[in-house]
Amino acid sequence: FDVEMAKVLAADLGIAEDEVEWIETISDNREPFLQDGTVDLVLASYSITEERRAVVGQAGPYLVTGQQLLVPEDSDVESTDDLQDKEVCSVTGSTSLDNAEAEGMKPVGFDTYSECVEKVLDGTVEAMTTDGTILAGYAAQNEGELKVVGEEFSEENIGVGYSQDNPEMCQWIVDTITAAHEEGLYEEAFEATLGPSGVEVPELPEMDSCES
């Protein structure tokens, strides 16, 4: 879904999909990449926090989701209560690890989500935790092997990162995403990426003001 929303933003600038330069980020390098100009925008399930907004710009949220659990299909785990003092993974530097620890689980960090998924599949860790929408995508990719369980135990406001050197980008991002929602592009992007997992298309959240 993040990639599709990035394509929407690029298209508004007249940039074709095959002209977009995609650079993979992990939690630890998102802010540095924006600050040093390695990337212009970050769309990577990028939770909006006051700490991040102190060093980079974050427009949105364009999606509100909550943290859940991804476990093997044959797992008996139903909630965080079943994972007390058990190892649960997410990406290093993410808010998900902090939330997992607060819920009584033992957080284990990996560089990428895909690496974390592999550790769940091979039994190295009991579960993976992050935003439910991300987990739904991996469950769909590994149908019959993985499933999403548990109620949401956090609220994550997902936004678009940009450099504080370009504050004008905030309103442009908000306006472009709002227009995409009105034109049905937001719904199309969601259904194409997360729809197969059974997640219903959400309403576009009220986005924060860009006024400082």
Automatic annotation (TrEMBL):
GO CC aspect terms: extracellular region; outer membrane-bounded periplasmic space
Coiled-coil regions, chain positions: none
Keyword annotations from UniProtKB, A to Z: Signal, Transport
Listed GO biological process terms: amino acid transport
Superkingdom as given in the UniProt entry: Bacteria
InterPro entries per record: Bact_solute-bind_prot3 (IPR051455), Solute-binding_3/MltF_N (IPR001638)
Transport among keywords: yes
UniProt KW Transport keyword: yes
Stretches assigned to the Solute-binding protein family 3/N-terminal domain: 1-197
Family: Belongs to the bacterial solute-binding protein 3 family.
Name of the protein in its database record: Solute-binding protein family 3/N-terminal domain-containing protein
Source organism of this protein record: uncultured Nocardioides sp
